[in-house]
């Protein structure tokens, strides 16, 4: 997904080096090699969204089919990956004026800039209401910062002071093997929700506690990875009088952006944060490379991020990766790395299994 030029890039008269051909599902990037020679590299993906694509376009074409798989009883994961400042959090959350918007406004008419998470939640509850089946919906929201997991929904974490002070005092949650080849987060609060309004309230509260900071590349740069998960249980009767129980889980992952520390201006604490972010994303890249190569050791355990995403990468989950890129020439190197990463990830073969019993 290619975002438009931002105000800073426009003021600096940055040259665009990324072209998208949405209908052909192609992205090309122009590189300058050997002095002034220019070479185009083209990549093909399942979906391509140019600068004029709307949040609704992205949801309907790339995300809606995934959410419908969740409602059928599959585990699914959607995550955004890309350089800092390319629109990952905007794509996943979108609407940031949480305090100025009532929950009813989301349920009744979705704001045009609402992202994947609010749209997916409205979609899930609209489907359950239309089918009229017996159901339960639960959610969790965690933050992974400097290899430590914090529960963004835990009421006990809400203390006075800054976000950083509150999170510093919050308990950290270890990862445990779940006995099924995956991992679970010990002590993570799972909240039951009955309607979209409740889930939007939890998103507001959790998003407000995420660690962000200003860098030269992004006014509000996420300094952590976040995972918002929704589990949907349904029970419906067949014409034969049997009850079919399905359990689908949707993981919505907003990765912190990779960044060039010298360009972002990160120093001291911010530089250490960036180092940890880049380290975990590098491990994610190695996991993807190992899965594509096949047959060898896959270094899931080298970072908590890859352990959390294990089922999404080579496991039983259906996975959608949204790669976000900047069109600007000064970001060409990072953009090329993102496109290479996403193109390799396309080759990973998962083995989804439906969670259903009669």
Automatic annotation (TrEMBL):
One GO-annotated biological process of the protein: spindle elongation
InterPro entries for the chain: KIF11-like (IPR047149), KIF11-like_kin_motor_dom (IPR047241), Kinesin_motor_CS (IPR019821), Kinesin_motor_dom (IPR001752), Kinesin_motor_dom_sf (IPR036961), P-loop_NTPase (IPR027417)
All residue ranges annotated as the Kinesin motor domain in the record: 1-348
Annotated binding of ATP, by residue: 82-89
Primary localisation category: cytoplasm
Family annotation (SUPFAM superfamilies): P-loop containing nucleoside triphosphate hydrolases (SSF52540)
Annotated compartments: Cytoplasm, Cytoskeleton, Spindle
Family classification: Belongs to the TRAFAC class myosin-kinesin ATPase superfamily. Kinesin family. KIN-5/BimC subfamily.
UniProt xrefs under PANTHER family: KINESIN FAMILY MEMBER 11 (PTHR47970:SF12), KINESIN-LIKE PROTEIN KIF11 (PTHR47970)
Identification of the protein by name: Kinesin-like protein
